[in-house]
Predict the structure.
Amino acid sequence: MSQKNRLQDGGRIDRSKPLTFTFNGDSYQGYAGDTLASALIANGIDVIGRSFKYSRPRGFVAAGAEEPNAVVQLGATEATQIPNVRATQQSLYQGLVAASTNGWPSVETDFMGLVGKLGGKMMPPGFYYKTFMFPQSMWPTYESYIRKAAGLGRASKEKDVDRYDKMNQHTDVLIVGAGPAGLMAALSAARGGARVILADEQNEFGGSLLSSKETIDGKPAMDWVAEVVAELNQFDDVMMLPNSQVNGYHDHNFLTIQQHCTDQFADRAPNGAVAQRLHRVRAKWVVLATGAHERPLVFGNNDVPGCMQASAVSTYINRFSVVPGNELVLMTSNDGAYQTAIDWHDAGRHVVAIVDARKNPQGSLIDAARERGISIMVGSGVIEVQGSKRVTGVSVAPLNDVGDKVTGAIAKLKADTVASSGGWSPVIHLSCHTGARPVWDDEAIGFLPGPTVQKQLTAGAINGVFTTHAALSQGLQAGADALAHLGLEATDSSVPTTEDVTQGKAMALFHIPHNKPTSKAPKQFVDYQNDVTAAGIELACREGFESIEHVKRYTAMGFGTDQGKLGNINGMAIAAKALQKSIPETGTTIFRPNYTPVTFGAIAGRDCGELFDPKRFTAMHAWHVARGAKFEDVGQWKRPWYFPKDNETMQQALNRECLATRESVGILDASTLGKIDIQGKDAREFLGRVYTNAWAKLAVGKCRYGLMCGEDGMVFDDGVTSCLGEHHFLMTTTTGGAAHVLEWLELYHQTEWPEMEVYFTSVTDHWSTMTISGPNSRKLLEKLTDYDVSKDHFAYMDWKPMTVAGVPARVFRISFTGELSFEINVQANYGMHVWNALFEAGEEFNLTPYGTETMHILRAEKGFIIAGQDTDGSVHPFDLGMPWAVAMKKPFSFIGKRGMQREDCVRADRKQLVGLKTIDPNVVLPEGAQGVFDPKAPIPMPMVGHVTSSYWSACLGRSIAMGFVKGGHDKIGEKVYYPLADGRVVEAEICQPVFLDPKGERQHV
Amino acid sequence: MFHIFCPHCGEYREEEEFHAKGEAHIARPLDPDACRDEEWGEFLYFRTNPRGIHHELWVHAAGCRKFFNITRNTQTYEILEVYKLGEMPSVVAE
Amino acid sequence: MQHYSGFGLLKHSLTHHENWQRVWRNPTPKKKYDVIIVGGGGHGLATAYYLAKEFGVTNVAVIEKGFLGGGNTARNTTIVRSNYLWDEAAYLYEHAMQLWEGLSQELNYNVMFSQRGCMNLGHTLQDMRDIERRVNANRLNGIDGEVLDAKQVQEIVPVLDCSEYARYPVMGASWQPRAGVARHDAVAWGYARGADAHGVDLIQQTEVEDLIIEDGSVVGVKTARYGEIRADRVGCVVAGNSSVLAKMAGFKLPLESHPLQALVSEPIKPILDTVVMSNHVHGYASQSDKGDLVIGAGIDGYNGYGQRGSFPTIEHTIQAIVEMFPVFSRVRMNRQWGGIVDTCPDACPIISETPVKNLFFNCGWGTGGFKATPGSGHVFAASLAKGEMHELAKPFSMFRFHNGALVDEHGAAGVAH
């Protein structure tokens, strides 16, 4: 349990809080304040994973979001497994369990590594496009092997036990990043009275200052941070979000923040707490103070564990009090990285040498290194390292002035750690998300945020300025700018003082040459996770992949879970050189959300399972449930499908429900039908324009069926509309179509006919609707009302206001079954009462509840269509055989009229809706069966139309069906054949679609 | 996600409350029966669909249910103006 | 053209891969071509390839404003299937499917066409009716397909929640075993390499600024980089720019360009072996050979050329995915992106003559163009070669929007509509 790389004191860890954790089955200790990475390094773990393609051993390179290698499987239980967690971003907690994601039998001894060694030469970029083609039949086999190697971590096998939440935020200023620039911007904005959100991906605010030894206002930098944080905490309108990644910058200043609430501290969220929260932020202004990522240099075998970013080494030493080795070689192209050698030296370890590619570096840090007696090799580079699971030594060679050629003898040095710095890449990711193109800056040697239409400000290293002073002053300015945009006044704040640092000019260097050509040199990795090498990029360019997007796609550069944060700029520089272009000419690929990966569960939030889509219930739902109803999803509604009794099969239940209705009386809960209340003096005229039939003469108290078409003439909804008053109508729509119909009516009223006085209100939920249907329905109704509902007083297609079971009701004498029917509408909260009263009164008539399936059968026996089942958006009323529902002579050219007269809509051989009787009456055609005239025709068979509705009719003692047949209206009596999947061919006769009571005598009693 | 000013509610609201309804100012022919098939097809389906300035119809579906027009850049997604039905845009493509 | 094979890889590994030939030339355009294809995406490159290879028209240029295969070819979810409802669409997509089977060998470029099957889930009774209808139509058209019940679905996709507790329980599915996925970039590159080998000039980074039209006929294009380039016939295959090109030619198209978003998870160990789509729950997913879950989102409702959409669309998609696959909840989304899809009112493409003589358009593929790439290229090449539309293309004339002969594939076209 020794932490051999841990220093005795210093750092931001809490040595009084030791934490035990497990990695690859072994138990280790770290401290509160550690990341998983720092704790593993403290314990001397070098190999954290294996690379994707060549299975090379890989160690820690970075200390933050840009880490490509240290990607682990996390989770103490099956239900809490998380794949691909970056160890550098995961706080250590007691009982944490992590494992490497690749390597068999273990990450230390990996069989695939052998394959990578032997076969690696045959796996240049795009090798899979050039092979595995012969013979064709073998591809699935080849692929099954390729697939075996897929993936890093694994998904859990169990349902997630954690909960996730979302919060909508509105703020004046969202500041991304709480380093010196972000803190200063937040302070300035908050002092000026703005509402501020400050979000940072790390567990502590401070950014680069967390691992820095510099002073601000004469105090240690972190003391200054603590003061600023304390002041910010005083403001009511400042929200501080540590452990929170801003992952997406969307249009109109909408940003998403993933806040880790408990998953940074526990395997699963304690006691119903929220594991992660997604903040959906609308910010008036955004300040990006996202800093920069250091670019390591590219050299031979630079992936051997022990090769790290210089700044990461400093971070591990200063922040976590961990030195990741004993013998350091630092390679740099700039002054800043000297700090790493100084930190290493000051931690009591040996700096073998600083290798500076520049010939004559000058600056205060260089002086400081010299003062410590550190050997500096100028004009040189580390061209390769030795070792496999840990660096054992380096080869250093002198370079020419521009750093693209080895010019002299190679010296070998012993070392176990190589820190390198090729400068800093501004973290511009968020600034690109809405399409802004980054701009190359020669001074900064990096891409800076490009011009944007978003309300975005930037401060600090993202702008290519890399000193703390610049960060503080730009942060102050960004805060003041935001205030000015908001119409607020900045208070008099000044830039805190920092130490003066003089820095020499950095050299634009990315790729260290080898004495061998790149293609023959040891592998020089650019993108570690995808094993993209400098040779691979050069090969891609040689093969003609000249666009940077082609290079990226051909080599897979930047496609890893770090999305090229570490390697992309190096790769672009290498491609530019290979193509003999400048970096800005070659251009960059663009960053897209997310900045770092986001848990699916957090994006889904609570809107899964029960809350995935609201369920809508009628007032009588509980009754249906109690009766054992089976339900059907129709739109968002749960509708009773059928009501099985005892051990009935579905068909037995349907037979019983159908016969009971036809013989006595049945009842349907029809509350789900859409209901739109329409009022206004032009309501009648409006109906005439949106329905295909005539409405001018519908008298008060009358009901009428109508078809609704689009401007293309195709039916999209239907229903009965009743005249409640001269200027007042109640429209019903299909259950699923209600919302669409309402918007449709509003569209035409507001855009085309605003001069009409008409108002629409959805009243679907206001009413409970119960339809009693069957020869005894009148007798049943009579028991519950004093109103005269006799044939002479209450005619078919009339509606009457009356009292039913003691409550006011609208009763409509309309019928979808062909039987004597009454549709009783009562205020929804009386629904259950009236329903119960009906059952009490209906006992003597064997009142039978039925669901949607019986409703479908009963209407099909009458040849009534269901919009959405017997229509599909490609049929007009004439196709449906419903010319009676179209009033072509109406004065106004109603919606759909012109459309249904287009050339293709008046063809004689259109598919038309007809009835179908199977020759064998016991055979029920499957719905969806496709008809043919010639069942012996070869495939592809000319199809003539499909079966839309098909049932066993217990009342008729045979099967019935409706369907489309080409030219069917002129083919009554002819045959059509249905070749089924099981080999049967069902023969049917085309007939009129009214199977029962064609004269309508049953409903007119 | 767009931030849209509803001219009827007088407030900025989130895009989730609105539905885009396609190009604005597509008037239904006054005498459909006099249209040739081609003209009717143009009205029904053919659109300018520009890259750049676009006048489009939106509805505050989960709000006031009112339709209104937006002039928006379809490349940058900037909303350049919002105006009521019956009004004409002040920002137009060159 | 240098032949690719495992042996070739071995041979080149001995010389450190220093001697691979260029995949295509980088030519300066001639003054005049027989055919100019505007748009170097998958469809345009396939068109050029078949023009040269099958129809003997080799004096061809493909003019691309960016890089080859850089539009929707680079941005789709790579699903290939042919289970369309109506005969016209089924024939076209099945024509493509048959070309897919053997495309790697045809091009000597492994496009990694992986026939791991595609499942379209049904969650309601009407879904199941539509599935029966479509699968029956497929079968009688000679396209493989079957209807699965929930139990069979569960056997094929163990991680799918087929329980009754789902908000919309799975009732069954249609299943096309020959469907699958392909490596999208490789399709563009394979066709480009093949076209180049047959003499086609691939002109990249060259934007067409105008179409040159004389006496009602197109005679060439005007480019920023090379000025005028003349041609006897011009074919525009510029998804996401079709209306812009049409405007240059002086007509409108029945199109709206919308953002269509997609996303991938981080790579995880194989867990999903087939393509699963749900129109009702609005999500679809497959897993790539690298391990990423490739997930398609819905279409954004507004017109947009920005190659990005709105976040709620992503949220709805992820909700659907987690609803369908509860065990994906702790997997993480790596990257999202957007394409520009030109949607037609009937969810079918336009492969058509235009009001301008010798100017042809191939567009309007909406959300489903990738799967059609070989078939689209083939029939468009045939049409450009002869100057009259190929039989399979005829139903997809832009003039169907005048006479009303639409081919309504909203049901089969997928999630986005």
User: Anything to note?
Assistant: The CA atoms of residues 352 and 397 of chain C lie 5 Å apart. Chain C has twelve helices and 18 strands. Chain C has a mean pLDDT of 96. Chain C touches chain B through 24 residues (CB under 8 Å).
